Amino acid sequence: MAAPLEERFRTVRDLLPEYRVEMLRGRIVVNESGTWQHNTVVFGIMRRLIGTVLDRGWEIWPNITVHLGEHTDRYVPDLAVVPGSPRMRMDHAVCGDSTTLIVDVVSTDSSYDDYYVKPQGFAAAGVPLYLVLDPAPRAAKLFAAPEGGKYGREIVAAGNESLFLPQPWGFAVQVGDLW
């Protein structure tokens, strides 16, 4: 008999600790580490966030599992910004509603999941802000105001436009500066 999905997920995660292993709608997804272009975008957003993060005593955690609830998916975003002493599910999993911002950089294999699958899971878990950065069109999409398992607002900025991050952030990110 096949092992339950959760057990198979843990086995794959344990066997491949250097990879990002996610569970998305009944699929176990193994992601390689990012390309230099991907990592440049991650660094760009980290550079913009770091002052506020340090001022408020928060932390930026790359590649941490976000716990969305029992018997649900397990997502591993590129960055999770957490307050001091966030609620943890396990040592490797922060509770979604205990984050201030989640960031994913789209790759060729992750586009559908980043734009459609993950926003549903993150909203249902109470993640306040989910930012998707897409290098191909040089655009950013912010999902905000989770309520009733969905995000109430979706804001898109491209090119040299500014994307305002609402409270608890309260500042704009120049999208063009991220590439």
TrEMBL record:
Residues 17-167 form the Putative restriction endonuclease domain. Gene3D superfamilies: tt1808, chain A. Pfam families: Uma2 (PF05685). This is Putative restriction endonuclease domain-containing protein. It comes from Nonomuraea antimicrobica. The lineage of its organism: Bacteria, Bacillati, Actinomycetota, Actinomycetes, Streptosporangiales.
